[in-house]
Write a structure and sequence with these properties.
Layout: H1 2-7, E1 9-14, E2 20-24, E3 27-31, E4 39-46, E5 49-57, H2 83-100, E6 110-113, E7 121-129, E8 132-138, E9 144-146, H3 155-170, E10 177-185, E11 188-195, H4 201-214, E12 218-221, E13 227-231, E14 237-239, E15 242-244, H5 256-268, E16 279-282, H6 290-293, E17 299-303, H7 306-315, E18 321-325, H8 335-338, E19 343-346, H9 356-363, E20 367-372, H10 375-387, E21 391-399, E22 408-414
Parallel strand pairs: 6-21, 11-12, 16-17, 16-19, 17-18, 19-20
Antiparallel strand pairs: 1-2, 1-4, 2-3, 4-5, 7-8, 7-10, 8-9, 10-11, 12-13, 14-15, 20-22, 21-22
Helix pairs in contact: 2-10, 3-4, 9-10
């Protein structure tokens, strides 16, 4: 044991992807399955990648993983780290990103974490293995791990998995396997399936019976556009009190609580006065934020996905939401239009806002509320805004991707002197 301790190395931090980081005589290495504070022995080292042999002394934030599939299933990489410590790490990632973008000072972040068993959106893979269907997530760089338990999924979705396996096994169009995306809408689970065969009338009959039995109003086949295979009832969801009909595979925030935290931070960041000039919302989707924003001002809502825009447009009657189709990377909203808005709200995709940021910086709207799911993209997007003179008024960090390295944040930016009298 004494020799083991002598040869042990200490994990000092987490890398951006959630692997533990340690310093060796050969340089910095990343070791999956470790948390800060762990004293570990390596089984092997290849460049900057280390393979864990064993943990000699566990770190203070190490806990027993709550799921027996941890280490096999690729869905959760950090279940061996206490949730409060994980939220602190994610908050630090966002703060460090804002520092690198040049903001000073940085307000103390508000930090929120959703509860387990709250995930309402999931992408699963399924494979025929011998005489059964394996349904779940891929192990890291490997095959599908059957999801026999899950600490993430909403109980309604998890309860659907056993009958879903049986149905997929009976489906002639499923030969070797495929993928399935499930959104838990207010009308019930909404399924979008990719399979390696072509569904015929018998497949559609099986799917319709399954949907009717299990309260699934719509089952669709992935495609451009998706094809409805079975429709057994109305499909709907609510953003605030507005009923929308999301297209198959529509984007939803993964947890209801996470959506509520984001919405609250966005609304709190709006100017207190001057909203008669209206709000420009970019990447509006199906209206996650649009209808809440419209309670405060007229909203010019831009979205590049035609199906999402059609959903938003259909639901916007009688509201102050004015939807418009726009590919914001190829045809960004121009600076002259952005300059007229009281606030610009944007929730860009994982890759960030791209060409749209230059127009925002040039237009210099008095208030920008930026929602991010990717610190690397946030750094690229916010650095030009800091260079344009924007200050950081507030930061909210939301951990709705439990036990992963993913983190959501909301940043409120203003121009000094342009809107100070209008702030809350």
């Amino acid at each position: 044991m004494e020799n083991a301790v002598t040869n042990a190395i200490r994990v000092v931090a987490l890398g951006n992807d959630g692997d533990g980081m340690a310093q060796t005589p050969q340089g910095r290495i990343f070791v999956p399955g470790t948390v800060p504070g762990d004293e570990i022995l390596l089984a092997a080292q290849n460049g900057t990648h280390g393979t864990l042999d064993r943990i000699v002394v566990p770190g203070a934030d190490r806990v027993d993983a709550p799921c027996h599939l941890f280490g096999a299933c690729g869905g959760c990489r950090l279940q061996d780290m206490a949730l409060p410590a994980l939220l602190e790490w994610k908050t630090g990632r966002v703060t460090e990103t804002l520092q690198r973008a040049g903001f000073d000072p940085i307000p103390a972040p508000q930090a929120h974490q959703v509860s387990p068993h709250g995930r309402r959106r999931v992408d699963l893979a399924f494979r025929r293995v011998e005489k059964q269907i394996v349904l779940g997530l891929h192990r890291r760089h490997g095959d599908v791990v059957d999801m026999s338990e899950c600490t993430l999924l909403d109980p309604t979705l998890f309860a659907l998995l056993p009958p879903l396996r049986a149905m997929l096994h009976s489906l002639p169009a499923v030969r070797a396997g495929g993928d399935i995306q499930i959104n838990l809408l207010d009308s019930g689970p909404d399924l979008l399936i990719t399979m390696d065969g072509t569904p015929d009338a018998n497949d559609r009959r099986i799917l319709a019976q399954f949907g009717k039995k299990h309260g699934i109003p719509r089952i669709s086949l992935q495609g451009r556009p998706p094809e409805t295979l079975a429709l057994t009832g109305p499909v709907f969801h609510h953003f605030d009190d507005v009923r929308v009909v999301p297209p198959p595979g529509a984007f939803l925030q993964p947890a209801r609580a996470g959506e509520a935290f984001i919405k609250s931070a966005v609304l709190a960041g709006l100017p207190r006065k001057g909203l008669k000039a209206g709000i420009i919302e970019l990447y509006a989707g199906c209206g996650t934020l649009s209808f809440s924003l419209a309670e405060h001002a007229k909203v010019h809502a831009y979205e590049g996905d035609r199906a999402a825009l059609a959903c938003l447009k259909q639901a916007s009657g009688g509201t102050r939401v004015l939807p418009a189709l726009r590919d914001l990377n190829r045809q960004p909203v121009m600076a002259t239009d952005l300059a007229k808005a009281a606030a610009v709200v944007l929730d860009p995709p994982h890759a960030g806002a791209g060409a749209q940021i230059a127009q925002i910086a040039a237009g210099r709207p008095p208030c920008i509320i930026y929602v991010s799911c990717n610190p690397a993209a946030m750094l690229r997007d916010l650095t030009p805004l800091r260079d344009a003179g924007y200050r950081l008024d507030s930061v909210t960090v939301i951990d709705q991707f439990l036990w992963s390295a993913e983190v959501e944040s909301v940043c409120v930016l203003t121009l000094p002197g342009a809107s100070r009298r209008n702030r809350r």
